[in-house]
UniProtKB/TrEMBL annotation:
Name of the molecule in the record: 2-oxoglutarate dehydrogenase E1 component
Reactions catalysed according to its record: N(6)-[(R)-lipoyl]-L-lysyl-[protein] + 2-oxoglutarate + H(+) = N(6)-[(R)-S(8)-succinyldihydrolipoyl]-L-lysyl-[protein] + CO2
Repeat recorded as keyword: no
Subunit and interaction comment: Homodimer. Part of the 2-oxoglutarate dehydrogenase (OGDH) complex composed of E1 (2-oxoglutarate dehydrogenase), E2 (dihydrolipoamide succinyltransferase) and E3 (dihydrolipoamide dehydrogenase); the complex contains multiple copies of the three enzymatic components (E1, E2 and E3).
Organism: Oleispira antarctica RB-8
Protein family: Belongs to the alpha-ketoglutarate dehydrogenase family.
Lineage summary: Bacteria, Pseudomonadati, Pseudomonadota, Gammaproteobacteria, Oceanospirillales
Gene Ontology MF terms in the entry: oxoglutarate dehydrogenase (succinyl-transferring) activity; thiamine pyrophosphate binding
Gene Ontology terms: biological process: glycolytic process; tricarboxylic acid cycle
SUPFAM superfamilies per the UniProt record, alphabetical: Thiamin diphosphate-binding fold (THDP-binding)
EC numbers, comma separated: 1.2.4.2
Listed NCBIfam families: 2oxo_dh_E1, PRK09404.1, PRK12270.1
Gene symbol of the encoding locus: sucA
Superkingdom as given in the UniProt entry: Bacteria
Length: 944
């Protein structure tokens, strides 16, 4: 099972140096029939890099490389066909035979014996019948050319050809790969599948190891079932082949040099994986069942918990990480991808060789949840690719209680969605452990070779109901009648091994006893577990633990250095043609850097990123239009008007600067935000930012906010410093793009879990972004950013405010008003402040002050008290917002404001000025919008 590495084989004394001829002979035998060479050599030859006509791959064995090259050329050379060459009946049938071969390659999986229960309804495919190709039983003994079907054998009888095709494509393995456009990938699969008829011969030790892994998988479920009867555990019974599958995924990936594997999965089989794959201490699991476990947070149920450990493989130590996962099934997929990308970036692993994502899915969820498609679309994009993901579908053939295909999906297979990225799909019968082992090896090899996603569809069943307290026969009577009669996978395989003489019945029983004894001991049952893991590349979160949200951050920046940096950021390469309007923006920014113009929002924001990079902090920024900015305010990425090349000054600050990644994302919110959350939870030293095109677009990612961003720390002790920018503001653009739904995020706030900020000046956004990285606290930051304020004549700052200031959670009155005359305090956040200020100045009112709350959560009580302290004669206080009363900050924050008001002015009442409660966030008609806006401004400023 744990095959030797190439280097270990080559360095073995009796095979080294002068024995090249022996190796060539072995290789030639492998080319004829891989099953005729020893297993370790078959694995070695399988892992050799492919050699294309146009690619020379440097491997240490030149004679073998030449053999591969010769083979490739012979297989790829097309044989000319003319009308005269098919004129005879035989030659016409020869063409039909080749068409038959191609039909099996493309559709043989539809006749494969995939269902352990034998209940799967299979369509009769005409393409796979001899008659469809105008062939008959009378042709079975006729000899035809085989193309590449028989390596080393040019001809065979039709009967031999048909048997080979059925064994390869219609047995317990059903391979889908002909939808892949790349011919090289198709031929790779043909060679790997057809050379061993999809069933390679495994040695006795490998078979014994398979039986041991199945014994462990079944043994844990039996043990938990007897010790904790009726308790939910979402067991793996019926899908026990997952455990040997995962074992091979990990061990084989290790032989290729993998150092980390990140795994995401839902609840089915999770506890089994924790014990039998990750090596979780069995007594810890038993304590959780018995309610003895202690947490320093609110916690989560045991089948949602994450875990990590290190195991030894033939290629060295591998770190395993199982992601925390809520019950929203597939949402963990992009989170895992983000965590993997962060680890790859940390290791400078651009090819995805050292860190591998593995995602385990349920069949119904894989087919039904849109985030699966979104995650596939991430797989080859610049911002999100991770070198290919290995997907494993635990196909129970029933989703909760729904199993009729016409109810569960509209496609033949639950895996058909994977075809959108041309991922090969390997269907396999879970009751054939050796076939499971083979497709697992195939999947790892494919991912290593082509750096693309691959899917294993493990067709199995669910021996019990959705959970152990559920009675499934009420909704699936026929299926569960069959399941009750079905022997377990381990029983079937043990009987097969006893029958072939690989093991005796006593050995099988001994395995069961040893595993049960290991469980009773309460210790670890994974033999490959590394007890003292290498922590060299572990991320140290200790500096970020245990801080109050008020932890100080010095966000100042030397003025001279700031000016020099600001000037450098406007430099562009010689000959780089800039579009006219963009050139004007850069000219203005040069003036801003010199102090000749005040700083606007876009420049202050990019300066925040630049100053962080200059001091060694990584920046990652994604979203649908972040390079330019949805509202043309950022222009962090410039586009050459002559050749469409790009230039980013933030990536050219200095030669030794940290990474700065700015990517326009695909049109996805749910998967992209999940990815960035996963990245941020794995890289605490970076500023990780996601920006919505418009704030309301984040609605499509609400599950990420609900299940991860707002609650991850308190469920799983998972810190996260992700920053989310949501454009928000009422400018008469209708109900869709006015509101970022501030109320939703405030409703999620408790226990200091997030920061909700509404900055109104360029200096504020500069210091807020710097604060997010510089202070040790790691909390998600949700920012409601402006649209019209990006160019508002009053929304400006000076260089000195950037260099010397700090983020103000409350900004007091800016005009010099006599505090003794003030009768009303207006509290507000965001853009409405400038509307209030303009109206008050036009009215020349001196009895109303306007105080801005720049941070709504955690609520800045002390700072608000300080801002209100000068006003001892006020008669009332009003909260003004643009949003309707049932939206915005009113309902979620009024108790905070009232508490502060009562501290200084007992008996005064907090009033409301804003739009009336409404079903829609904003008016769609401009005239109505203006009327509503004028009314709320007047209500806020007019004393009753």
């Amino acid at each position: 099972m744990h095959e030797l590495t190439m280097e270990q084989l080559w360095s073995t004394s009796q095979l080294a140096g002068g024995n090249v001829a022996y190796i060539e002979e072995l290789f030639e035998t492998y080319l004829r029939d891989p099953n005729e060479v020893p297993e370790e050599w078959r694995q070695y030859f399988n892992q050799l890099p492919r050699v294309d006509d146009n690619v020379t791959t440097d491997i240490p064995h030149k004679p073998i490389r030449e053999q591969f090259l010769l083979l490739s050329k012979n297989q790829n050379r097309a044989k000319p066909t003319s009308k005269s060459s098919v004129s005879s009946e035989f030659e016409r049938k020869q063409v039909k035979v080749l068409q038959l071969i191609n039909a099996f390659r493309g559709r043989g999986h539809q006749h494969a014996q995939l269902d352990p229960l034998g209940l799967m309804e299979r369509e009769q495919v005409a393409d796979l019948d001899l008659a469809f190709h105008e062939l008959s039983q009378a042709d079975l003994d006729t000899t035809f050319q085989t193309g590449s079907l028989f390596i080393g054998q040019d001809e065979a009888t039709l009967n031999e050809i048909l048997n080979a095709l059925q064994q390869t494509y219609c047995s317990t393995v059903g391979a889908e790969y002909m939808h892949i456009v790349n011919t090289g990938e198709q031929r790779w699969f043909q060679q790997r599948l057809e050379s061993v008829r999809s069933h390679p011969k495994f040695g006795d030790e490998v078979k014994k190891h398979l039986l041991e892994r199945l014994t462990a998988a079944e043994g844990l479920e039996k043990y938990l079932g007897s010790r904790y009867p009726g308790v939910k555990r979402f067991g793996l019974e019926g899908g026990e082949s997952l455990i040997p599958l995962m074992d091979e995924l990990i061990q084989r990936s290790g032989t290729y040099g993998a150092k980390e594997i990140v795994i995401g999965m839902a609840h089915r089989g999770r506890l089994n994986m924790l014990i039998n794959t990750f090596g979780k201490k069995t007594s810890d699991l038993f304590d959780e069942f018995e309610g003895k476990a202690h947490y320093n947070h609110s916690g989560d149920v045991k089948y949602h918990q994450g875990f990590s450990s290190n195991v030894m493989t033939p290629g060295g130590e591998v770190h395993l990480a199982l992601a925390f996962n809520p019950s929203h099934l597939e949402i963990v997929s992009p989170v895992v991808e983000g965590s993997v990308r962060a680890r790859q970036d940390r290791r400078d692993d651009s090819g995805g060789d050292a860190v591998i994502p593995i995602l385990l899915h349920g069949d119904a969820a894989f087919a039904g949840q849109g985030v699966v498609m979104e995650t596939f679309q991430l797989s080859q994009t610049r911002a999100y690719k991770t070198g290919g993901t290995i997907h494993v579908v635990i196909n129970n053939q029933v989703g909760f209680t729904t199993n009729k295909r016409e109810d569960v999906r509209s496609t033949e297979y639950c895996t058909d969605v994977a075809k959108i990225v041309e991922a090969p799909i390997l269907h396999v019968n879970g009751d054939d452990p050796e076939a499971v082992l083979f497709v697992t090896q195939l999947a790892v090899d494919y991912r290593n070779e082509f750096k693309k996603d691959v899917v294993i569809d493990l067709v199995c069943y669910r021996r019990r109901g959705h959970n152990e307290a559920d009675e499934p026969s009420g909704t699936q009577p026929m299926m569960y009648q069959k399941i009750r009669e079905q022997k377990t996978t381990r029983q079937l395989y043990a009987e097969a091994l006893v029958g072939s003489g690989v093991v005796t019945e006593d050995v099988g029983s001994q395995m069961e006893d040893e595993y049960r004894d290991a469980l009773d001991s309460g210790l670890h049952v994974v033999k490959s577990l590394v007890k003292e893991p290498n922590e060299e590349l572990f991320v140290d979160w200790a500096p970020h633990v245990g801080h109050e949200w008020t932890a100080y951050a010095d966000t100042r920046y030397d003025l001279k250095e700031l000016q020099e940096l600001a000037t450098k950021m406007q430099e562009v390469p010689e000959g780089f043609a800039i579009q006219r309007q963009v050139s004007k923006i850069l000219d203005d920014r040069r003036k801003m850097a010199a102090g000749a113009l005040t700083i606007n929002w876009g420049f202050a924001e990019t300066l925040a990123y630049g100053t962080l990079l200059a001091k060694g902090h990584q920046v990652r920024f994604t979203g649908q239009d972040v390079g330019r900015g949805t509202f043309s305010h950022r222009h962090a990425v410039l586009h050459n008007q002559k050749d469409s090349s790009t230039y980013c000054s933030l990536q050219n600050i200095s030669e030794d600067q940290p990474r700065c990644d700015i990517y326009d994302s695909l049109l996805s919110e749910e998967a992209v935000l999940g990815f960035e959350y996963g990245y941020a939870t794995t890289n605490p030293g970076a500023l990780v930012v996601w920006e919505a095109q418009f704030g309301d677009f984040a609605n499509g990612a609400q599950v990420v906010f609900d299940q991860f961003i707002s609650s991850g720390e308190h469920k799983w002790s998972r810190l996260c410093g992700l920053t989310v920018l949501l454009p928000h503001g009422y400018e008469g653009q209708g109900p869709e793009h006015s509101s970022a739904r501030l109320e939703r995020y405030l409703q999620l706030c408790a226990e200091h879990n997030m920061q909700i900020c509404v900055p109104t000046t360029p200096a504020q956004v500069f210091h807020m972004l710097r604060r997010q990285v510089i202070r040790p606290l790691r909390k998600p930051l949700i920012v409601f950013t402006p649209k019209s304020l990006l160019r508002h004549k009053l929304a400006i700052s000076t260089l000195e405010e950037l260099a010397e200031g700090s983020f103000q959670t409350v900004i007091p009155e800016v005009d010099e008003l006599d505090p003794a005359k003030v009768e009303r305090v207006v509290l507000c956040s965001g853009k409405v402040y400038y509307d209030l200020l303009a109206e008050r100045r036009e009215r020349e009112q001196d009895n109303v002050v306007i105080v801005r709350l720049e941070q709504l959560y955690p609520f800045p009580e002390e700072q608000l008290l300080d801002a209100l302290a000068p006003y001892t004669n006020i008669k009332d206080m009003v909260w003004c917002q643009e949003e309707p009363m049932n939206m915005g900050a009113w309902y979620s924050s009024q108790h905070h404001m009232r508490r502060v008001l009562q501290m200084q002015h007992p008996g005064l009442y907090l009033n409301y000025a804003g739009r009336d409660a409404a079903a829609s966030p904003a008016a769609g008609y401009m005239a109505l919008h203006i009327e509503q806006q004028q009314k709320l401004i007047n209500d806020a400023l007019t004393l009753g």
